[in-house]
Amino acid sequence: MQKEQDQILGDLTSGEYKYGFYTDIEQDSIARGLSEDVIRMISAKKNEPEFMMEFRLKAYRHWLTMKMPLWAHLNIPEIDYQDKIYYSAPKQKAKLTSLDEVDPDLLETFNKLGIPLEEQKHLSGVAVDAVMDSVSVKTTFKETLAERGIIFCSFSEAVREYPDLIKKYMGSVVPYTDNYFAALNSAVFSDGSFCYIPKGVRCPMELSTYFRINAANTGQFERTLIVAEDNSYVSYMEGCTAPMRDENQLHAAIVEIVAMESAEVKYATVQNWYPGNKEGKGGVYNFVTKRGICKGDNSKISWTQVETGSAITWKYPSCILRGKNTTGEFYSVAVTNNHQQADTGTKMIHIGENSKSIIVSKGISAGVSNNSYRGLVKVLPGAQNARNFSQCDSLLLGDKCGAHTFPYIESGNQSAIIEHEATTSKIGEDQIFYCNQRGIATEDAIGLIINGYAKEVLNKLPMEFAVEAQKLLQISLEGSVG
Amino acid sequence: MLVIKDLVASIEGLKILKGVSLEVKAGEVHAIMGPNGSGKSTLASILAGRDLFSVDSGSIMYNGENLLDKSPEERAKEGLFLGFQYPIEIPGVSMVNFMKTAINEMRKHRGEKPLSASEFLKKMREKKELVEIDSSLTNRSVNEGFSGGEKKKNEIFQMAMLEPKLAILDETDSGLDIDALKVVARGVNNLKSPDSATIVITHYQRLLDYIVPDFVHILYRGRIVRSGGKELAVLLEEKGYELIRQGEVNL
Question: What value of ipTM does the predicted structure carry?
């Protein structure tokens, strides 16, 4: 039986990464390396206004003074930043007026990924911004959204069309001085999505961005900015994949969310970058800074993430709870298998009175992987009656993987109540046998057990994502019980 | 239905079963009794296909086929049910989802279509009434936070749902108060049919006040040392296992 399980483990974990294909498409790439000239070139290629180039250069000069952070529980091989390509775009006509003008190879790529860009074929109720390498390929349902005053477009377009909004909000939640990867992103970011919901508007459909790295040796640096005005609501989803390559690909993104009075923003991620092969070769290095601010009273930001991909994940979607009665939520399932490493969690910064936060983190480790939760709950002196509840669970499959929890609590207000619960468990052979005895085969049993364990988080995903996420969890882990 | 011949089995080189033979026919209820450590639960585990034990010699035929060739889930799909002595908790997995998955796996095996949601819920309601279990149990995750008694009742409920051909109840009565014991017994009695069989493994005679077996076997030190009708259980209750220990020399 032990042997049989190892066999199943072998069979299933060696299952091909479904999104590992590469699209052979002509690319407009610049030479490897990073310098002020490169940044000027990126800015010029994007026809950016002067303020944008200045912002990039300031960020770059700051980045040069910084060192890569090493505090995470990660073993990060040295990254040669001069060996990366910082801009690469699939070649296509400069301006698209209709879908007919999108390169058929590009459409095919997104079709293969299950993201059809033809609006009539697309899931009704989901608008997509498709980003490949350094540029946005196509944003769907733009016109429908515009009728309600909602802006949903690529970041590059926003820089040109809505410079005042960009100037006002870009870097207001994650300044370029924030950390090493935020500075790098601010210097070289190429595209991403921008979303603006006006006062009193409930966005009628899910908005989503689909990120795809295609070109070799290319870093992907995207930025997403979401601004929700008073009494507005939006639910946003993000998905990511990359081809299988032997070399490691670099991804450093920034997501900023601003929620004004009584606004609510839900942000869901299903991160499935290529995780590398079984021996730990290749895979995406995923260094992401995601942060939202509940600026107005009674506002709410909710992060939900399902992290199954990437060789290395360094990511802490956070909430600054500045307004009174604000709510921050973080729901996370992070899966690591084979040689994957993840150090992920959140920061909840309580500034406003009666601010509340909830953290539910479910780590699942298999193979020889390492999975860490790192979270900070900080209550400032003015945050009267702040509340936090954190629950961090770890599930181990097999006996060669690691699960770690690093909770940090800093409370500056006597009235704050902070609770932290943590558990560590193993999928037991007895649980699997119990399922077997009821006629359920081992692979299905593991899927059932994992999904049960992650249910609290999966329930928070929009319907369109939940089913995909369940399958993804099962595929990432099936059979990995030793 | 079930024919066990000279079964010898061990765990990590330690012999637990030293030649067990047993035949169970459709429509019969067999009770296997014996003191702790005599090999009762080992026998149940081997029948269900738990890999902790190795079968050294002997054979087990189930409906004319070699049971030992089959995986645990194949055995289950062919109607073999084990009521666990210590039912396992599976947090976050609802009883509804668990049972639906199990039933549909078995239906698939028999070439039948999966049950629709409404058919399934109807079946669930019926079986809950049949085994008289509290309806709230099935709204929870599998055995999570259940009391000992609730877990045992849940095993009987699952048995009712899965309608096995051969049910093996491994000390389902241990740790139960008299009311819970009656629920378990009622469940077993209600599910009795001419084409199914039950093996009740128990340490105490008291369960047999409520479930009347056709045959009683006494398992002692890895061997069935005595078989008889229900009166054997009564005799055992009166004289205790000491009787068997003395008698063993003569066997």
Answer: 0.94
